[in-house]
Write a structure and sequence with these properties.
Elements lengths: L17 H5 L2 H4 L4 H20 L5 E6 L5 E5 L16 H7 L23 H6 L1 E10 L2 E8 L2 E2 L4 E5 L4 E8 L11 H14 L4 E6 L4 E6 L4 H8 L10 E6 L4 E8 L6 E6 L2 E2 L5 H20 L10 H5 L2 E8 L5 E2 L5 E2 L3 H20 L1 H32 L22 E6 L1 H10 L5 E6 L11 H6 L1 H10 L16 E5 L4 H17 L1 H5 L3 E4 L4 E5 L1 E5 L2 H11 L4 E3 L8 H9 L6 E3 L5 H12 L3 H10 L9
Parallel strand pairs: 1-8, 12-14, 17-18, 17-19, 19-20
Antiparallel strand pairs: 1-2, 2-7, 3-4, 3-7, 4-5, 4-6, 8-9, 10-11, 11-14, 12-13, 15-16, 20-24, 21-22, 21-23
Helix pairs in contact: 8-10, 10-11, 12-18, 19-20
Bound molecules: 3-[3-(1H-pyrrolo[2,3-b]pyridin-5-yl)phenyl]propanoic acid.
């Protein structure tokens, strides 16, 4: 893909940066940890754009000791020539004006990443200091900024034969709730970027903690699916193909494993489209069609057509498209909307995969065997479900008998508490606001769905109860419109068993109803860990908080709650259930690939992987997915 020549004249100046500091979340999503990391991604995405154009081979990101970050690339360097109208160097326009830059001029930039595509000027506006160094035209140029404003003029500071850009910024603590970067989050993202840009090298270094890692994947998506399937038993060698038109590139990698999960990861211009979109739906349609056609032509369709769920069981796949003008939709702007892409991906995958199957019958047969077993299990599951439905027929309206439902039927306002233990559930029933809060007790640990086949999982009583209460159904029948509660809140004891039950439930939601997590319907309750008595009762939610508290109140009158059951109904209401005073945590998926790997690792068969993961993460109090 060729970009036309770029000069200062093609920069379009839109507006100043004042608004960015007033409403930062509009530009980077949040001013928390996620927003902070977007600053780095925004700069790196610009370097990746240089790589997509074939001008850049290496990007280095350094977390410096003083809290700043340096992103260095060997691209062409940001242009420095004076703009004919604005009379300032192009780089200064790009860094001090919103949307100024070649990225928004379609001619010079065909493809562009950047989650919000907001440009480095946003990073500049939200940094208390930024220094840019450019190697270009034989010179080294340098310029300094603060909070989006120019501090020094662009100066030549030396000579060089190289080209490239070095940007260092100090995130502004007045804007962000935290200015500490998380090495693990960055590591995951950069690994992903190199998988999606074969041949690109990314180096990440943390100076203070003396950590350094280098990513380079010459094998691209083939290496990506292998990485995802690392702790899974695989069925065949990865399948890979690329299809191109003038404007669009499609890369697909496929590898089945022996698990029951379906893992399709979509990327658009290297952005992980967590909510899917037209590229993913085009792929699904084609996959179902090609496998059915192949199986039929070989006389292997004995029980009728294979369903979409059947052909996706145990599938790991990456669908990566590069397109000139992506339209992102959905709640987190991670769903591809371009309607023309569905048909393009559908027909490209249909032809490429049919061809592959004809040429590689042994792999095709292994896949048909795997998905036929899924179909057999689905038929058995259908029978099991009917049994459960009949069992439940005696309870009200087909809902589980154990469910204490709420009276309001508008799902936006209502909440389902899934409560560990019958006695805690009893207290919760007394405590709740009957109008909007429903209680579903769990007897104990639910089945580990990561390790059981879907037939068994769906016929387990506790899981069937949850599915019925929630209302949406699972798999292909999943229908978000049938969701019966706006919030589903997992409430367990704050101990090891409670943590385990929480993880089992999250695994269930992640594998069977991932939409509920993606759309922000799943929460965990945060019951207090301690009660501190000093004239009145105070509730404390973490050990850290307790330390601060006892120091401040100079008290040691402290009760540790061992479980939810130790609170009476008014305490439980006040601390954990009253929407005005409680704390709950929304579960979200930061990175779908990493979330899948973590669930496979924590809940699957790879004992060594799990041990390594746990010892690496022992310092993290909680698992954030
Ligand atoms: C606009 C135009 C050109 C390159 C860049 C921006 C550019 C931006 C960044 C940000 C970080 N690294 C970067 N590298 C390049 C094209 C320049 C040309 O045509 O020579």
């Amino acid at each position: 893909m060729k970009a036309s020549t770029y000069g200062a004249e093609s920069i379009k100046v839109l507006e100043g940066l004042e608004g960015i500091r007033k409403r930062p979340s509009m530009y980077i999503g949040s001013t928390g940890k996620t927003g902070l990391h977007h600053l780095i991604y925004e700069v790196v995405d610009n370097s990746v754009d240089e790589a997509l154009g074939g001008y850049c081979k290496k990007i280095k990101i350094t977390l410096n000791r003083d809290g700043s970050v340096t992103i260095e690339d060997d691209g062409r360097g940001i242009p420095v020539d004076k703009h004919p109208v604005y009379k300032v160097p192009a780089v200064e326009l790009a860094l001090t004006k919103l949307h100024a830059g070649g990225k928004f001029d379609k001619k010079s930039y065909m493809i562009s990443g950047g989650l919000h595509g907001v440009g480095i000027s946003v990073v500049n506006a939200l940094s208390k200091k930024m220094v840019v160094e450019i190697k270009r035209d034989g010179n080294i140029y340098s310029q300094e900024y603060s909070k989006g404003k120019t501090k020094t003029k662009l100066k030549v500071t030396g000579k060089t034969k190289d080209t490239g850009t070095i940007i260092t910024f100090w995130p502004d603590a007045e804007i962000f709730s935290t200015v500490e970067f998380d090495y693990k989050i960055l590591e995951t993202r950069f690994r992903e970027i190199t998988f999606l840009n074969p041949g690109l090298k990314i180096i990440l270094e943390d100076e203070a903690n003396k950590k350094k890692i280098e990513f380079f994947a010459s094998g691209g998506l083939i290496e990506f699916v292998k990485w995802i399937n690392k702790s899974k038993e695989i069925v065949h060698k990865p399948i890979y193909f690329r299809r191109e038109t003038n404007e669009t590139i499609l890369d697909v990698a496929i590898q089945y494993n022996k698990s029951y999960q379906d893992n399709i990861f979509g990327f658009v211009n290297t952005i992980n489209t967590i909510e899917g979109g037209t590229h993913v739906s085009g792929f699904k349609t084609a996959l179902t069609r090609v496998i059915n056609d192949y199986a039929r032509s070989k006389g292997q369709l004995k029980n009728g057509n294979l369903s979409g769920d059947d052909v996706r069981e145990g599938l790991t796949s990456i669908i990566s498209v590069k397109i000139p003008e992506p339209q992102f939709e959905g709640q987190t702007k991670t769903k591809l909307g371009n309607s023309e892409i569905k048909g393009f991906v559908d027909s490209a995958v249909t032809s490429a995969l049919s061809e592959f199957f004809e040429e590689n019958p042994s792999i095709a047969n292994k896949i048909v065997t795997k998905v036929s077993e899924a179909a057999k299990a689905r038929l058995a599951a259908k029978k099991a479900k009917e049994l459960i439905r009949r069992k439940n027929a005696f309870s009200l309206g087909g809902l589980p008998g154990k469910l204490a439902d709420c009276s309001n039927k508008k799902s936006e306002n209502t909440e389902l508490y899934i409560v560990e233990g019958l006695s805690a559930a009893g207290t919760a029933k007394d405590a709740r606001n009957k109008e909007i809060q429903a209680i579903l007790p769990l007897k104990g640990k639910i089945l580990n769905v990561e390790k059981s086949n879907p037939v068994r999982a769906l016929s387990s009583e506790e899981i069937a109860n949850m599915i019925t209460a929630i209302g949406t159904g699972v798999g292909e029948q999943f229908d978000l419109n049938k969701l019966r509660y706006g919030k589903i809140i997992i409430m367990t004891d704050a101990d090891v068993d409670g943590e385990h039950i929480k993880t089992l439930l999250l695994t269930f939601f992640f594998r069977f109803m991932p939409e509920l997590i993606k759309k922000g319907h799943i929460y965990v309750a945060l019951p207090p860990l301690y009660r501190v008595r000093k004239k009145k009762d105070y509730y404390v939610y973490s050990d850290n908080e307790l330390k601060k508290f006892t120091e401040r109140l100079s008290t040691t009158n402290v009760t540790r709650f061992k479980g939810l059951g130790e609170m009476d109904s008014s305490q439980l209401w006040e601390t954990t259930m009253n929407p005005k005073t409680r704390k709950i945590k929304k579960i979200y998926i930061e990175d779908a690939v990493e979330a899948d790997r973590i669930f496979s690792m924590l809940m699957g068969d790879d004992v060594q992987g799990r041990k390594d993961f746990i010892s690496e993460n022992a310092h993290n109090a909680e698992l954030d997915v």
